[in-house]
Design brief:
GO terms for molecular function: siderophore uptake transmembrane transporter activity. The protein has about 650 residues and is mainly beta. It has three helices and 39 strands.
């Protein structure tokens, strides 16, 4: 695998050398070098890294990048995002009952049950509320207009998490009426199809869609299925107010093929979700904001589970509201105040091998999070400028102690160079899992005396646009965490306690090169140093690169590759007696998608036919020990819009 690491680093070096070459050209005026003002082929892998006025960093993957990656689910959509590591073992679907699918952001997200990462759709929480961690099959890509990977705690945006992933739904706002059909098929009996229809009728816009994909899997028992149905409706109420309703339904299943050494499988894991979000938004120029009401209900249904429980059904409910308003009383000053209020509960039903049944109705949790922040622009963003910021989020939980998460930052720059620095406290409360792991008994004490987990996150970075063709980003990050809650089993009194600490630091560097309107290149390298050093899915080094090339008028080639160091695997259990010892080897992967555009003038339609190949080098690799991933495989398909 060393040769693949060398290849990845050489590719990154080649792009950096392009920076030096292009940087020698005469620079254009500052207001003409912004990449987003150019009409070019979509950037590969990610839409871009974003730094907001609080110095907080996020990475956005757009609908175009999802299509270019031929992503069938959220894990494949984020597999090349800088700072992100994934795990999976099925071509379609993420088995939710064990180690079958997860996303990790800069070392965060490995705890189970519970997680440092929270997942959102349209800004509202969507995850397994009973066990306090994400299930990837609850995050469909069909309604995704973009996916935000929010790196590190950002109290001015969200709470109760150290990092976050948010799906921003597609809208038809400003678009003519359209209908889009897509179908594809390929290796392992994999099929995928979607139908979307929408348009803006002037004051009212609508977007309706459905998607379905399934696969037999590359191994017996590794089958999966995903189905989604969604609607996004928007209406202008007057010149200043608008309303939007987003609704989503999901029905999914994924199987566990078991270890290839012949061990027992863990059956299948079905997931479902029904959600609705109502948003009232306002825009008065000097002030804007929104009020969201949401409710979602879902389940995780573990069938044919190995061990004592033959079947395990987990039902959860979330409901609440989110509100914020930003006011600009004078030029350059932004004042924001908001509140997030959520409630959640659920129940568990177990069916034993001998036919006996039991159930657990967990207590209702609620969390109220008011917050306020301010930032002020000094100078001119096209010249010398600085934007200092400060704020805090307050947490009031119905079962645990209150706490506060402050943050401060600064963004400063001149012309095409910008630096940013921020420090923020992250807070993660114990979830419903602490009330029932292991099953409730008098031997378990003091779960309601736990403190929330905390992390102090520091980030320092620089971005420079060399000219109209090249942009580079460099970021250093450091997370110092404490109060990780774990269970100490044994003779009474067994108990939960806040006893563990962790430390993660590293760098992310990336470069985007668009030498012509027809070609775009991207490369990144992420390094991490973690303590304890057996934290899972936190590789020392990851190199990712991609290219989008539009050629011969109608053809587009999208290729991506990555090198991932060897790393510890499996989840980081919340028991003091368990330590990670399993590792998976390093690997290099290369994928490509070739598409040819076409038009049907008589139908006023346009579309494309495409062929996508994954693991072109036929690499042997695993995300979980003894769970080999597919060798070279492919799909062909077509997309038509009219």
């Amino acid at each position: 695998m060393k040769k693949h690491l060398v290849a990845g680093i050489l590719l990154l070096a080649a792009l950096v050398s392009s920076v030096s070459a292009l940087a020698g050209e005469t620079e254009k005026p500052a207001d003409a070098v912004r990449l987003d003002e150019m009409t070019v082929v979509a950037t590969p892998l990610i839409h871009g890294n974003e730094v907001d006025r609080y110095g907080a960093v996020s990475t956005v993957v757009s609908e175009e990048q999802i299509r270019d990656l031929n992503a069938l689910d959220i894990a494949s959509a984020l597999r090349r995002t800088p700072g992100v590591t994934i795990t999976r073992y099925n071509p379609v679907g993420a088995f939710g009952g064990g180690e079958g699918g997860a996303v990790f952001v800069r070392g965060m997200g490995s705890s189970r049950p519970g997680s440092e990462i929270k997942t959102y759709i349209d800004g509202v929480p969507v995850y397994m509320g009973l066990w306090n961690h994400p299930l990837l099959d609850l995050l469909p890509i069909d309604p995704a207009g973009s996916v935000e990977v929010i790196k590190g705690p950002q109290p001015h945006r969200f709470g109760d998490a150290f990092s976050a992933i948010n799906i921003v739904p597609k809208t038809a706002y400003g678009k003519d009426t359209f209908t889009t059909l897509e179908a594809a098929g390929g290796s392992y009996g994999t099929v995928s199809q979607s139908i979307e229809h929408g348009g803006d009728l002037g004051g009212f816009d609508y977007y309706l869609g459905e998607g379905f994909r399934r696969s037999d899997g590359h191994r017996s028992g590794g089958d999966g299925r995903q189905a989604s149905l969604f609607a996004n409706l928007g209406m202008d109420l007057n010149d200043n107010w608008s309303a939007r309703v987003f609704a989503l339904g999901l029905d999914n299943a994924a199987g566990d093929p078991g270890p290839d050494t012949g061990g027992e499988t863990d059956g299948t894991y079905d997931t479902g979700l029904r959600m609705a979000v109502v948003t009232l938004a306002n825009d008065f120029g000097v002030a804007d904001g929104e009020l969201k009401f949401f409710v979602n209900a879902g389940e995780g249904y573990w069938k044919d589970q190995s061990g004592d429980d033959d079947e395990n059904r987990n039902d959860f409910w979330f409901w609440g509201l989110k509100a914020h308003e930003t006011v600009r009383p004078i030029d350059g000053l932004e004042l924001t105040a908001g509140i997030d209020q959520q409630w959640w509960d659920g129940n568990i039903r177990n069916t034993k091998d001998d036919g006996t049944e039991s159930s657990v109705l967990v207590p209702e949790f609620s969390l109220c999070m008011p917050y306020a922040s301010a930032n002020y622009l000094i100078g001119d963003e096209k010249g010398w400028h600085a934007i200092p910021s400060v704020g805090a989020r307050f947490y009031s939980h119905n079962k645990f102690d209150d706490t506060t998460a402050p943050h401060a930052g600064i963004v400063a720059g001149y012309g095409t160079t910008e630096v940013h620095a921020s420090i923020a406290k992250g807070v993660v409360y114990p979830g419903l899992e602490v009330t029932m792991v292991p099953p409730v008994s008098s031997a378990i004490t003091k779960w309601d005396e736990l403190d929330p987990e905390e992390v102090w996150h520091t980030e320092i970075g620089i971005r420079h646009t060399f000219n109209a063709y090249v942009r580079a980003d460099f970021t250093y990050f450091h997370d110092d965490g404490e109060n990780r809650y774990v269970f100490t089993p044994g003779r009474p009194p067994s108990a939960w306690s806040n006893t563990e600490e962790f430390d993660v630091q590293g760098i992310e560097a990336s470069v985007t090169v668009t030498p012509t309107d027809d070609i775009a290149l991207f490369a990144s390298i992420t390094t991490q140093d973690v303590d304890p050093d057996n934290m899972p899915y936190a590789p020392d080094t990851t190199v990712k690169a991609g290219v989008n090339w539009h050629f011969a008028e109608l053809w587009t080639l999208s290729a991506d590759c990555e090198y991932v160091d060897d790393m510890y695997a499996l989840s980081q259990s919340r028991k003091t007696t368990v330590a990670n010892t399993e590792k998976v080897d390093s690997h290099f992967l290369l994928n490509a998608r070739l598409a040819r555009a076409f038009e049907l003038p008589s139908w006023s339609a346009k579309g494309e036919v495409f062929c996508a190949l994954e693991n072109i080098t036929d690499t042997d690799y695993e995300y979980r020990p003894d769970y080999p991933m597919p060798g070279i495989n492919g799909m062909v398909g077509a997309r038509l819009t009219f």
